[in-house]
Structure formats: C-alpha cells, structure tokens
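Materials and Methods. Structural model of Fimbrial-type adhesion domain-containing protein. The 176-residue sequence of Fimbrial-type adhesion domain-containing protein from Trabulsiella odontotermitis was retrieved and submitted for structure prediction as follows.
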Amino acid sequence: MKKIFCAAALSTVMGLAVSQSVLADQTGNIHFTGAVTPNTCTLSGQDITHDLGAFSTSDAWTAINFGVFKTISDVIAVSDCSPGESVVMTPTFNAHSGGNTEKMVNDGSAEGVSLTLSKGALSTSNRYSTGVDYTFKTNNDGSVSIPMTQTYWRYSNEQVTAGDINFNATFAFTYP
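The predicted structure was written out as tokens:
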C-alpha cells in the first residue's frame, strides 16, 4: 500500500511539473507600437486686439437702434493641415439674454454697446453664436482662412452711456 501511495504521489508531482512546462509553452508576448506626432495644423492670427479709440455718446450711431459704430475685419489662418480636413471653431463669449447668442455683452462699464462676430457682412446667417461649432474645410494646399469680422454697434434701443468698452471671446479650434 505504501508503494501505491508513493507511486501516486510521485505521479502527481510529475504531472504538476509536466503541466507547468506545458503552460510555459503556451505563453506569448503582445507588442504595442505607436507614435506621438505634433499638431497637424498651425494657427495664425488667432490673437486679435483692437483699440477702438474714443467715441461720444452724441455720435449719430448712438441714436439709431442697432446703429453701427465701427466694423473691423480680420482673418484667422489655418495651415499645414491635410487637404480636405475639417477644422472646427467654437466661439465662447458672454451673450445677451433672450436667445441673442450672437450678440456679445460689453464687459466694460459703457452700456448700450454690443459686438457681433461674423463671417463677413452682418447678415443673420453670417453671425457666429456662442457655443456653436463652425466647420471649415481646408483647401487643396491644406489651408483655410476663417473670416472674423467684428461689428460694434448700439444694442437695440438701449441708451449708450459713457465708459469703457471691453469684449472678450475665446475660440476653441479642433482638427485631427
């Protein structure tokens, strides 16, 4: 009986050794590869600052509802992208209440003055609204020019008061 027990014990130990060597033959390696690349597009002209100078509360535009004080046009240039790539711009700014998401509130002390950002002429379809994505496709050379027209004007029929004019907007750009 001792011989059978020893034989059974020896066969169990041998079986474990064999099964470990079988498990060792079933291992493998997984290799992960990749690359970190720089941005695929380049922005220029995205930091826009204008000194509007002084104006008087008695200027003609201050007496007209939505009267225009000044219009300035700039371009944000995107380059070094792949041709046909989508560049998404999302503006964020403090907008007037009541669904006027394209009309910026003056952060300065002057009242009754507003700013609208647009793709050109100040038509409703050209205006940029806060929090909305605008997609621009790059040309065959991998570039696109994003128009940025700023129109400063009297907001509705609000009285224009003396003070500082200060408008701030942030633009997020997304591209592959």
